[in-house]
Amino acid sequence: MAKIPEYIIDRVRTSVDIVGVISRYVSLKKAGRNYKGLCPFHTEKTPSFIVSPEKQIYHCFGCGAGGNVFNFLMQYEKISFFEALKLLAEEAGIQLPQTRESREQVSEYDRLYEINLFAAEVYHRLLQENYTELQPYLSGRGISSEMIKLLKLGYAPGGWDTLLKAAQKSRKDLRLLLKVGLLTYSDKNPERKYDRFRQRLIFPIFNVSGRVVAFGGRDLSGQPDTPKYINSPESPIYNKSDVLYGLHLSKDWIRQEGFAVFVEGYMDFLQLFQQGVKNVVATSGTALTEQHSALIRRYTRRVILCYDSDTAGVTAALRGGQILFQNNLDVQVLLLPEG
Q: CA–CA separation, 62 vs 59, rounded Å?
């Protein structure tokens, strides 16, 4: 089976600057002949992550992670070697030969990203098809058509198998849908699969690179015993402690403004971003963690917590603020007036 020639791989590697690639994910500062920053692969307070422009390699003296630009993208983005090679080749304007092996070399991570993208497109199409029915709710919440497109918002109807049938029609591997939690098994009948999200407004959750890793769903049924929000369970590509909602859109604004505004939910993020406050991220209802601290530290050292002013919101701000402060971030709390 033919492989991509080694000389083409070397050409791609030498055509891109490892400092330029890594600095998109990590805040790097010049340190002699090298660059230094906080390691993106483990939590640390003192920078031990070194990038060498001369050798075109990186190394963390804290956790031992290291390698070339391909290794970095594979570890950070959770992608295969071929996909890392393909991304950098496109960036460098180098055409890769199409081989049977390159077409088959799709990792499990790639397949999970692909199935999430498929689901996001199904939900987004369903929102567009049912827009007239949903418009009173969307207008009432002040959600513009621009934000629907930008956040790729979707709609899951009330049936038990809307996504399941769409996946079967497109001949998708249902095991992947189960693995990312879009399908689940019935308690009464362990062999029966059904959609996790039903009668909900769907918020795709993107990682920092803009790939769909999970979903959040806001209840539209109004039933008293139904949770207002449910989220995807954790999966090989989704750890809720590692993701800040909206960061893929706001990271450059955060760098530009010099601080990040933290809000609690998807809708809070949407409203602020829509009104022009674009240096904002949401914790998606989860408690702030050290991983969140490490993630935001790549873009800024200053955080403003803007949570609800009720008891739960104030408590969350105090707990979250303490974690951020302990991880070398300058934290302030913005208390909103009642109503």
A: 9
Contacts of 314 (CB under 8 A, 6+ apart): 307, 335
Which residue's entry shows tokens 């290291």?
Answer: 66
Token pair belonging to 278: 């674009």
**CA-to-CA separations, 102 to 3, 9, 97, 108, in angstroms, rounded:** 7, 13, 9, 15
Length of the chain: 339
Q: Which residues contact 2 (CB under 8 A, 6 or more apart)?
A: 99, 100, 101
User: How is residue 27 annotated by DSSP?
Assistant: -
Which residues on neighbouring strands pair with residue 205, listed in sequence order?
214
Q: What is the mean pLDDT of residues 172-191?
A: 92
CB neighbourhood size of 8 (10 A): 16
Do 183 and 193 form a contact (C-beta atoms < 8 A)?
yes
Segment 220-267, tens digit of pLDDT: 998 989 999 999 999 988 989 889 999 999 988 998 899 999 999 999
CA angle 131, 132, 136 (to 5 degrees): 95
Q: Three-class SS of residue 228?
A: coil
Strand partners, 281: 262
